[in-house]
């Protein structure tokens, strides 16, 4: 094998890396009554983010194995505009393959448990139908459990998405240029 063929293989690998989508699995759960949740983001079999979260006032406490950090979300006008533009660009390129919603809702009163649980189920069904319009090939599932004797309010979401590295870079550049154009006007 000559040196030129190694360079061509490397170039082919880079092109494939930028063009073919990466598949991410995102798992998030939160229990409102216990003020406890977790977030995990995985790409194939690599864990990218694994953290436990708690809400403390208006802040979010993120606990990882290495350290606990407190994140106060203070964003200026330019950062908010960049996030809005980036979200618009990425949402057109992001492919949602599978979304599972799980909920466990209940109260001490069986009647109010049934009403609250079914209302939440209807709300999630509306969200699923909205997502189905944008991603008709995606699979969306909702499983709801009603507890008639205990106070419960917890939910979990498992989502499998795919996006290419080229689409992320393109969306970031496009969002950055939009913010720069609005600043010059």
What features would you highlight for this structure?
43% helix, 8-stranded mixed sheet, 185 residues, single chain, alpha+beta, 4 helices, elongated
Describe this structure in words.
The structure is a single chain. With 185 residues, the chain is α+β, with helices and mostly antiparallel strands. It has two domains: 119 residues, no CATH class; 39 residues, no CATH class. It is built from four helices and eight strands; from the N terminus they run αβββββαβαββα. α2 packs antiparallel against α4. The longest helix has 25 residues. The model has no long low-confidence stretch (mean pLDDT 82).
Give a quick account of the main beta sheet: strands, pairing sense, barrel closure. 8 strands, mixed
Q: What shape does the CA trace take?
A: elongated
Distance between the termini: 56 Å
Give the helix proportion (percent range). Answer: 40-55%
Gyration radius over CA: 21 Å
Low-confidence stretches: none
- Global structural class: alpha+beta
Measured by DSSP, the beta-strand proportion falls in 35-45%
In round numbers, the mean pLDDT is 82
Widest sheet, order of strands: 5-4-3-2-1-8-6-7
Order of helices and strands: HEEEEEHEHEEH
Topology of this structure?
Layout (H helix, E strand, L loop, with lengths): L2 H17 L2 E10 L4 E8 L2 E11 L2 E5 L4 E4 L5 H17 L1 E12 L3 H25 L4 E9 L4 E12 L1 H20 L1
Parallel strand pairs: 6-7
Antiparallel strand pairs: 1-2, 1-8, 2-3, 3-4, 4-5, 6-8
